[in-house]
Amino acid sequence: MDGKRISLPLTDEVIDTLRVGDKVLLSGEMTVARDAAHKRIYEAILSGEEPPVDLKGAVIYYMGPSPAREDRPIGSAGPTTSGRMDKYTPTFLSLGVRATVGKGARSAEVTEAIVKNHAVYFAAVGGCGALLSKCITSSRVICYPDLGAEAVLRITVEDFPVIVAVDCTGSSIY
């Protein structure tokens, strides 16, 4: 896929250039978290605790990986449905998350939070987990190992293909 090549972390200047429908190749570090991890992190925040992961500047990929195959850092690594994280996303964006990556439409509240916090939502193609895993060069658990496949991971990606689904102006591909 041809597209804009972007090195993470995202800057305001890069976010300003992204528009709905843009094809993007991400390279750098992303945080992987989905339903159970989001719930725990959110509950910690509501309890007045510091989040157990640094959300400032983060790109969060909604993904539940399969076990790594021999000589690979991760197994299949496709996106999960983003709407299941919509309850938590406005809070996470207010704490500095710059982008989320998943599949499917986002709620009006999330779109408003994306605009308010100058962020972006990227869509990854569902059903391509085996291919997407080839863009992941390293993976390690950084939080909640007891959650197994839903543990929080730090991954390094190279030319990870996504599409801008909601840009910082609130325009949506959906």
Describe the protein.
The chain has 5 helices and 7 strands, in the order E-H-E-H-E-H-E-H-E-H-E-E. With 174 residues, it is an alpha/beta fold. It has one domain: fumarase (Alpha-Beta Barrel). Strands 2-3-4-5-7 form a 5-stranded mixed beta barrel.
- Report the sheet-strand fraction: 25-35%
Write down the CATH class.
Alpha Beta
Instruction: Kindly name the structural category.
Output: alpha/beta
CATH architecture label name: Alpha-Beta Barrel
The biggest sheet, with number of strands, parallel, antiparallel or mixed sense and barrel status, is: 5 strands, mixed, barrel
Brief descriptors of the model:
alpha/beta, single chain, 174 residues, fumarase, 7 strands
Briefly characterize the structure:
With about 170 residues, the protein is α/β, with parallel strands linked by helices. It has a single domain (about 5-165), classed as Fe-S hydro-lyase, tartrate dehydratase beta-type, catalytic domain (fumarase). The chain has 5 helices and 7 strands.
